[in-house]
Amino acid sequence: MPEIAHEANGRDHSSRDSLCSVAKMAGMWWVWLTVFPVLLWGVPGALWIRKIRPRATPLEWLTWSLAAGAVTIVPISYTLCFVLRSPLTPTTQAVAAFVSAALALGIRRPIIKTTDQTHTPLEGYVGTALVVCFAAVLTLHTAPKAVETTEIWAPCIHESAFLMLEDGSGHGLTVYDPSLKDWMSHRTMRTTEPAWGLSSILGHQRPGSMASIAQVIAIHGSAGPVIMTFIDYLLILGAATLLITKYCSSWLLSVFGAGAFLLGTRHVSLYMVNENMLALALILITISLLCRTTGYASLFISGLAFSLAVGIRPVVLTALPAALWFAPQGRRTRPAFAMAALLGLLPWLGTHAAAYGHALYHPSL
Q1: What is the reported pLDDT for 162?
Q2: What ranges make up the beta strands (E) of the chain?
């Protein structure tokens, strides 16, 4: 009997230790996810959405805030790194987030008139929670390909992000290597000119892609691809739902349509972080903003979203007629959208000009 009691007591201690380990890990992830994307992207984006849609639904707040933060902070931080010839760091991201928030706060009066619209229950708190859970479950079931688990920097989008994070001037970038089961310091040796030494990777990657994925890897390291996959899924689900519910009142059809759309894009992904998915998410964000909101702040954010999508995948330019079709009616709306898109294209066109001598030339186009 004492031996049985001792074994049972040992099992209890083992169970408590396991629960403590799980709780500590969950708490750690909660802290890191709060830093990114909540604080660095979500908070500045929420300031923009407050001016764009003062009475936004929970799903609008979540989807558009995350997107507005991304489309303002990514080009700002990339420009800082490119001009200063310095790697992307959390400090750079914090400065970019501060600039984005300051610009949003600079809009002193609500120049946006919200459109009259009947919202579906899917856009409420319960529907928003379902969207987040669906995105999280799909993320956990999106296993990394072999090349991502054994060679962290092998896919071109990861390699390009590495060049944004480490230029050989420091002690290297330390990340956990699953194949070696240890922390490894990675360092690149490259010339910094022309174009900050990015011309080699630009042969098979676009600057918008490297600027976007580098954001999450700078905070989460080798866990970055998992977090970025969750962000892609969440943006696609949220924006697709907002587009469908704009024209369909059935929440069941909306859920089915958004889920089928995401599962289709997930099926064609070649690896965990696929730049095509992010570009598609940004196009959905652009159109959902244009068809559900009005005002110059909305046109500015939607134009930046479109330009970042073009910086990731230039073929997105074929969606320009659709964006203009959904743009609010008005003499100045389309020119305002075009000006915002051109402004957002400057970092990517400037990179092309520095690397190849021509802003509109890119070898992978």
Answers
A1: 81
A2: 173-177, 182-186
